[in-house]
Amino acid sequence: MGVLDLRIRSVTEQDVALVLDLIKELARYELMADQVTATEEEVYAALFGPTPSVEVALALLGETPVGFALFFRNFSTFLGKPGIYLEDLFVRPEFRGRGFGRRLLAHLARLARDRGCGRVEWSVLNWNELAIRAYRRVGAVPQNDWTVYRLTGDALSRLAGEAEPNESS
């Protein structure tokens, strides 16, 4: 079975455990398994709760899940258009090199085009040469002028504590 046999679909409520398993597989690959604290309940709420915050495209070869793309909407103030931020793209190791990752990216590109988005963007670990080569092959360009910053844990809580209590969200 090859790339033409691949089927990509949105996840359903019945796929939540699978999505979490794929997230954990990705974390192991990225040597960050100890950082996964997400639960099935949290993944369910993010996908299907009252205010869904993410979407997942699932790649299937027959009935076998081979990978996924987890993404959400963002916005470019300069373009004045929404965009898609690809948080995770993962193809199981035994299925790599067959064009499945490229198909997932093409799926997101089509969603972005159809939704009137101005761009699709993502981050990649600097050591992940396999992914970097694949991204360059599809025409993706690294944004070397930008550095990603992250605020989590105690630092997030401390800064949040500085907000005025009467500020609305």
Describe the structure.
The protein has 169 residues and is of the alpha+beta class. It has a single domain, classed as 3-Layer(aba) Sandwich (Aminopeptidase). Helices cover 33% and strands 23% of the residues. Strands 1-2-3-4-5 form a five-stranded mixed β-sheet, sandwiched between helices. β3 (64-76) and β4 (81-91) form a beta hairpin. α1 crosses α2. It is globular, with a radius of gyration of 17 Å.
Topology:
Blueprint: E1 6-10, H1 16-29, H2 40-48, E2 55-61, E3 64-76, E4 81-91, H3 100-114, E5 120-122, H4 129-137, H5 153-160
Parallel strand pairs: 4-5
Antiparallel strand pairs: 1-2, 2-3, 3-4
Which labels suit this protein?
alpha+beta, five-stranded mixed sheet, 169 residues, 5 helices, Aminopeptidase, 33% helix
- Output the CATH class name: Alpha Beta
Strand coverage percent: 15-25%
Report the C-alpha radius of gyration, rounded.
17 Å
Taken together, the total number of domains comes to: 1
The count of β-strands is: 5
The topology string of helices and strands comes to EHHEEEHEHH
Which CATH-level-2 architecture? Answer: 3-Layer(aba) Sandwich
> Strand sequence of the main sheet, in spatial order?
1-2-3-4-5
Mean pLDDT across all amino acids: 94
Number of helices: 5
From the N-terminal CA to the C-terminal CA, the straight-line distance is: 49 Å
Strand count, sense and barrel status of the largest sheet are: 5 strands, mixed
Summarize the structure.
It is built from 5 helices and 5 strands; from the N terminus they run E-H-H-E-E-E-H-E-H-H.
